[in-house]
């Protein structure tokens, strides 16, 4: 490939609309161009990187015995209705009608559609099966941002396992866990395997692969000592044992004029960790009291996971007053008729403070299990930095991260809904047990840039770089230099190296800048000074190290660098 013929429109300045480093650099280096919010055109350099990512993913999918398919991107509504997700998933699902008025969706995932194919699996003898595809997905993001990190149209590798029982699913899940670990290692991504919520996917267990990055939209809780890692939506921590006194025989009301917050109540001798915070949520249309310790924040996804609610929102002040007779600031669950779900940190707590459901009045001496009719206990609180690890007791870290992959144990949710059954060894008809395994291809590309860049541009790992080497003709108007550069270029090409020659009639500084900006791992510079000595300069993009190499040894030297 010749740079003079290649479409790589680099920019001198950072685009004003770009925020994340990957967004800024992929635009500047001529990899992508925005069509509209959340939709990007991938230019030639990006297509080459994307192809290499897919090649690595395919190799690891093939290694676990997965077979590639390609299913439609547009789906009829019927299978989505059968699974319940037509109504469960909100406006993120693109919906449309065809000319006959039939409803369809643009697939944001393919569980239902793979399940329809799997109806032909009639016997346990045909299991396990591992299927995957590399397909365009659509998600009507309300706020697409970060370039390729959060888009409305993207490529995903989604894989699905089909087993006869839970033990088979466990084996499939472990195989994909290993495959994903190898994929991200090969991509140069320091991804953490984190316990995660399954969300609208359903199922029993899921693991997210999270790449630490300052621009990440997710929070990951990690223990550097033992390796525990979990998404903030799933993470838990160990709390010190509470030292409660017995308290009075019954809660005692006391006046608290003007008290509206946890902090306001501190003035009345009520430490935050001795307060019961009462939140009112509407879960699938039903007002529900959610109780936490005063200094603990609620994680809403944990509430969703604990209750299975499809619709969740905080109650409006008018709804709260109608239900409890008081406004926020004086709320409590003592004597309340509403359903109550409480965080595990409140279990067994005594001599606590809470609202009395009378404006400007609170209660002291509350014994949670004695005085409150808790209907369900669950882990609802969000873990904070510095709390103790549940495994080893060391301090936890909270990191920003980018989700680059997610694997789920789906169980029989979709097979029951779509009628995917096989005859087992005893001749009984049983639902197939499914797993789902996804990787966002363009998001992986952006995450690689987030973790591999410097002030001069992108620093691609060799495995995914658009080219391995660029040969720079320092003085294109010098016939001798041009001829020597062409000879090096031809030698590298003949040796199977992916190489581009920068033969443009530009100054050497412009060529160096573009080579650094685009992130090609190795640069071979042929110029007058080196040519006079029979040598070229070989520069490693990641380190900036430059070596002077005899012209007839350049090919062997580069091949050694690539092999190392």
**Count of strand segments:** 31
Main beta sheet strand tally, sense and closure: 9 strands, mixed
Count of domains: 3
Assigned CATH superfamily of the largest domain: Bira Bifunctional Protein, Domain 2
What's the multimeric state? single chain
Shape: globular
* Name of the top-level CATH class of the largest domain: Alpha Beta
Question: What low-confidence regions span 5 or more consecutive residues with pLDDT below 50?
Answer: none
EC number: 6.1.1.15
InterPro entries: aa-tRNA-synt_IIb, aa-tRNA-synth_II, aa-tRNA-synth_II/BPL/LPL, Anticodon-bd, Anticodon-bd_dom_sf, Pro-tRNA-ligase_IIa, Pro-tRNA-synth_IIa_bac-type, Pro-tRNA-Synthase_IIa_type1
Protein name: Proline--tRNA ligase
Subunit structure: Homodimer.
Summarize, please.
By secondary structure, the protein is α+β, with helices and mostly antiparallel strands.
Describe the model.
The protein has 564 residues and is an alpha+beta fold. The protein has three domains: 21-235 and 398-450, BirA Bifunctional Protein, domain 2, CATH 3.30.930; 252-378, YbaK protein (Alpha-Beta Complex), CATH 3.90.960.10; 467-563, Rossmann fold (3-Layer(aba) Sandwich). It has 16 helices and 31 strands. Strands 3, 7, 8, 9, 10, 11, 12, 21 and 24 form a nine-stranded mixed β-sheet that branches. A five-stranded mixed β-sheet has the order 16-14-15-17-20. A five-stranded mixed β-sheet has the order 28-27-29-30-31, sandwiched between helices. It is globular and about 100 Å long.
């Amino acid at each position: 490939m010749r740079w003079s013929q290649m479409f790589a429109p680099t920019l001198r300045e950072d685009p004003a609309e770009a925020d994340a480093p990957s967004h800024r650099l992929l635009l500047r280096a001529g990899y992508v161009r925005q069509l509209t919010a959340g939709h990007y055109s991938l230019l030639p350099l990006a297509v080459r990187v994307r192809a290499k990512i897919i090649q690595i993913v395919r190799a690891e999918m093939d290694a676990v015995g997965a077979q590639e398919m390609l299913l439609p991107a547009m789906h009829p509504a019927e299978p989505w209705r059968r699974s319940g997700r037509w109504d469960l998933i909100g406006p993120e699902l693109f919906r449309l009608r065809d000319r006959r008025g039939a409803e369809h969706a643009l697939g944001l995932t393919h569980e239902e559609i793979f399940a329809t194919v799997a109806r032909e699996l009639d016997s346990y003898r045909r299991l396990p099966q591992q299927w995957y595809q590399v397909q365009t997905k659509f998600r009507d993001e309300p706020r697409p941002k970060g370039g390729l990190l959060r888009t409305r149209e993207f490529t995903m590798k989604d894989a699905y396992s089909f087993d006869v029982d839970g033990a088979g699913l466990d084996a499939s899940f472990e195989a994909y866990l290993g495959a994903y670990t190898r994929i991200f290692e090969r991509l140069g991504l320091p991804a953490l395997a984190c316990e995660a919520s399954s969300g609208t996917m359903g199922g029993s267990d899921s693991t997210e692969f999270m790449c630490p990055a300052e621009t990440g939209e997710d929070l990951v809780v990690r223990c550097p000592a033992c390796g525990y890692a979990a998404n903030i939506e799933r993470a838990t921590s160990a709390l010190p044992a509470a030292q409660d006194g017995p308290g009075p025989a019954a809660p005692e009301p006391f006046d608290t004029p003007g008290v509206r917050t946890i902090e306001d109540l501190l003035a009345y001798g009520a430490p935050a960790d001795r307060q019961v915070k009462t939140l009112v949520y509407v879960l699938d249309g039903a007002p529900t009291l959610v109780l936490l310790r005063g200094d603990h924040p609620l994680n809403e996804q944990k509430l969703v996971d604990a209750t299975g609610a499809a619709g969740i929102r905080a109650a409006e002040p008018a709804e709260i007053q109608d239900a409890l007779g008081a406004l926020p600031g004086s709320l409590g669950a003592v004597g309340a008729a509403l359903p109550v779900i409480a965080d595990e940190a409140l279990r067994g707590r005594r001599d606590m403070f809470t609202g009395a459901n009378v404006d400007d009045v609170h209660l002291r001496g509350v014994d949670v299990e004695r005085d409150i009719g808790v209907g369900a206990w669950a882990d609802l609180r969000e873990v904070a930095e510095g709390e103790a690890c549940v495994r080893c007791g060391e301090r936890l870290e909270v990191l920003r991260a980018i989700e680059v992959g997610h694997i789920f144990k789906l169980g029989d949710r979709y097979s029951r809904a779509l009628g995917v059954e096989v005859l087992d060894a005893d001749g009984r008809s049983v639902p197939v047990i499914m797993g789902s395994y996804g990787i966002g291809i363009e998001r992986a590309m952006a995450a690689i840039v987030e973790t591999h860049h410097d002030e001069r541009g992108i620093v691609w790992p060799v495995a995914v770089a658009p080219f391995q080497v660029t040969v720079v003709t320092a003085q294109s108007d010098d016939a001798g230099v041009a001829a020597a550069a062409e000879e090096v270029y031809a030698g590298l090409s003949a040796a199977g190296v992916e190489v581009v020659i920068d033969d443009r009639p530009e100054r050497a500084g412009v060529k160096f800048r573009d080579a650094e900006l685009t992130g090609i791992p190795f640069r071979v510079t042929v110029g007058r000074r080196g040519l006079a000595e029979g040598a070229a300069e070989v520069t490693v993009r990641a380190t900036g190290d430059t070596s002077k190499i005899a012209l007839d040894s350049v090919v062997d030297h580069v091949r050694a660098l690539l092999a190392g």
